[in-house]
Design brief:
mainly alpha; 10 helices
Length: about 230
């Protein structure tokens, strides 16, 4: 497909892409808030954000926004360029996460929390498929992983693992919630995201997104979040 044809395809699908982007980001924020309410463990970055929130007095959503903005600063030496999806990710996830926590009260019965955890993880996978398939650029954390992959030459899986193990360890040390939900999320999010990426793929947008590293090969967004 030529550059002109590719640009035309992107414009023709713009309404659907915008709907997918913002539906996906809102759903992602909801899933993060629901995982907090289950009290059964969070995904690595939320473990860190929750730990920081407990020491600063800020809401976990606010910490999510601030940490996302700080991570974007790390894109500069990696020569990454943010897209609409990147900036939207920074703002929307934290706002929706806090809104979800305000609307959903703390839960006690395990019979309620376990199904809610499963639903939240499935929703997270669907949200990932929606916003990544829209091709408006990766989130700040995914872009950090792919940028380090390109600059270091290390496999995406290794870079991702090193970052997330470090984030998880620091978050746990700060009092973040580590539990069965963390393990289930780690095992399930790859297959779920892969399924939903295929389900929500937009025909004609299979080429690389515009947020690429200058003069360097960029892995597809799918490889930024999924195991190799």
């Amino acid at each position: 497909m030529s550059i002109t044809q590719g640009s035309g395809t992107r414009r023709s699908h713009l309404p659907r892409r915008l709907v997918q982007l913002y539906t996906g980001l809102v759903a992602y924020g909801v899933s993060m808030g629901l995982m907090v309410r289950t009290g059964l463990g969070l995904e690595p970055w939320s473990v860190l954000n929750q730990g920081i929130a407990r020491h600063t007095g800020l809401t976990i959503g606010t910490v999510t926004i601030v940490s996302g903005a700080l991570i974007l600063l790390l894109w500069i030496p990696l020569r990454q360029r943010p897209g609409l999806g990147t900036v939207s990710n920074v703002v929307i996830l934290g706002l929706v996460m806090d809104a979800t926590l305000a609307l959903v009260p703390p839960l006690d019965p395990l019979a309620v929390r376990v199904p809610l955890l499963v639903a939240a993880i499935v929703l997270n996978g669907a949200a990932t498929g929606l916003y990544i398939s829209a091709r408006f650029g990766p989130g700040p954390r995914d872009g950090l992983m792919t940028g380090l992959h390109v600059r270091t030459g290390r496999p995406v899986r290794l870079v991702r693992t090193c970052i997330e193990v470090t984030v998880l360890a620091v978050g746990f040390a700060l009092g973040g919630s580590l539990g069965v939900g963390t393990v289930v999320y780690a095992l399930a999010i790859g297959p779920l995201a892969q399924f939903f990426l295929r389900r929500f793929a937009i025909e004609g947008l299979s080429e690389r997104p515009s947020t690429v590293v200058a003069r360097s090969p960029q892995p597809s967004p799918e490889r930024a979040i999924l195991p190799e």
